[in-house]
Amino acid sequence: MADQTDNPFKQLNRNLREVPPEMRKKVMNDIAIAKLILDMAVLVSSNYASVISGMIRTNKRK
Description:
Helix content: 55-70%
Oligomer: single chain
Shape: elongated
Radius of gyration: 26 Å
Low-confidence stretches: none
Distance between the termini: 86 Å
Largest sheet: none
Number of strands: 0
């Protein structure tokens, strides 16, 4: 019963434990890969709107 009355937000003020270097390296590598994939997706898909509008737009000839 005593565990239920403890405030879980008080645990946020505790000092955090240091992460092992190999785990930190793996997590940072995974984040870098995810960022690379996101950047590649933006690079590939960002020009679709301009390409479609360029195809639809007609040039007025003089």
